[in-house]
Write a structure and sequence with these properties.
Blueprint (H helix, E strand, L loop, with lengths): L2 H11 L5 H15 L3 H9 L3 H12 L24 H9 L3 E2 L7 E3 L3 H10 L6 H10 L2 E2 L16 H17 L9
Parallel strand pairs: 2-3
Antiparallel strand pairs: 1-2
Helix pairs in contact: 1-3, 2-3, 2-4, 6-7
Amino acid sequence: MHKNTIHERFMRIAPHLDEQAKRLWCANEALALERGGVTYVAQATGVSRTTITTGIMELTGEKALPESGIRKTGGGRKTIHDTRLKEDLEALVEPFIRGDPESPLRWVGKSTRRLSNELNQQGHTTSHCLVGRLLKELKYSLQANHKTIEGAKEHLDRDAQFRYIFKKTVQFQQQGQPVISVR
């Protein structure tokens, strides 16, 4: 069986399946392939190996299916009750935004782990995964240019330079003046 075939079948049916049905469909495909099936199906569908393995255990009876609903009780993403979290995150990343200010896609020069640590120091309860998800919701890209990857050996005043550039950018924009980024 060819990976593209699995991918095509999955893409055709996936919009009509809930999480449990996707998990079981992928598990069934992996079982049909036998050795290496989990890896093969994971690569073809983008569904994690752990999810497929859980589906296999559910299909083979090693693990019970949830009695009600799609997930076990307490499963899934947690609802964010911290009303200031997004505001505080944006305040942390604003001086470090990189890219064209006119572009709808912006990216941040700080890592999600560093941002999470800073938010936790402010009294929030976050993880790097939650920060990554929030940045995506706020239309930030998590990709960084190789030269801007945090932690690399760089000029000692690099942070101060970016803060200065940001301050000047805001001043010019408030005056209605254009800001040009040159690499």
